[in-house]
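Lab notebook, bench 4. Still working through the backlog of constructs that have no structural model yet. Next entry is a single chain of 135 residues. Request: give me the structure tokens for it.
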Amino acid sequence: MSDEPNGPIPLDKALASFDALWSPRIVTRVNDYDVRVAKVEGEHVWHVHEDTDEFFLVLEGELRISLREPAGERTVVLPQGAVFTVPRGTEHKPYAPSRAAILMFEPSGTSTVGDRHEEIPDHVDATTGHTLGSP
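Model written out:
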């Protein structure tokens, strides 16, 4: 993505390099964490990451995250520019009413469908992230 090693990575170019929905690309790493970008639309799956929080930043559009918490179910609405962290152990389901782009920050090797999840539909890529430039 950058013309030089360890150079800047323009997120708009990173996002333009792929079309797949719910299929994140790893743009860089920070210590033992991946910084991933994804294009999203429609529903993901209910899932939970038992041992790690999951950070979301909405780059374009709007993302909604439904949460199942001890007090009940609620939905957090994230407009462009908003951030939210889903606490470890919290069952959640991201949803984008129309096409959106997000950035996620999570430990390298973290599955996009968590440690426990419902049946995975064909439009959701169960992955630990793809490198930029992969189809």
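Notes after review: Residues 46 and 93 are 4 Å apart (CA to CA). The longest helix spans residues 11-16. Flag for follow-up if needed.
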